[in-house]
Predict the 3D structure of the following.
Amino acid sequence: LLPGGPFVTELNRVDVPTPPADVEFRYRVTNSGEVPEQLSIEDPTLCTDVASVLAANPGGLTLVNCPICPTGQVNTTVAVGASFQSSCTIRFLTEAALRAFMTIEDSRSSCRALNQQGAPDRFCHRNCAHVSSQAGNVPGICSNPAIITDDSFATVCHEFCEMDVTKAARCMDCTTRTPSGNFEPSLTVARGSCVEFTVAVRNTGAV
């Protein structure tokens, strides 16, 4: 998926580096039948996801050589034994846009990346494509050809660093240094009182 790197599909994944970074989604269909196929490749979520991220992060990404957008569909005819290939490259220019792209499909009921616990994976994005084809009307072979469909998906991830810092305080006896009460996010104390502070740092990122 990364230009110059290997393409992966289904359960494999590609780790996207820190922007600027290009991610190329490729669609490849081979006609292994005996007659020409009228082919339609559909990927509507890619176009809408890009548009939504761009609306919230102006200038954060751009499309490069992406004939499937903005309609979300490419139609063509594939000869016997031939293959058709199309691609769409997303150029991520900011970290904010890349993070938004990773999480934008988390609310969907299908075609979303899941972590090991089965919950939406906010560090990964799953893209799904649907292909439908119909054999050409060749007399004596395909008088009423059926529509053939297939689906495929690819997953890209961006594991970024993230921390959560919490500071709290509680009262303390100034003489014995014995703490009193629980740590609280806010505390009202009198002049001359002693206070104990604690700082908790939690790694909420993926690395």
Observations:
- Residues 162 and 205 are 4 Å apart (CA to CA).
- The first strand starts at residue 13 and ends at 15.
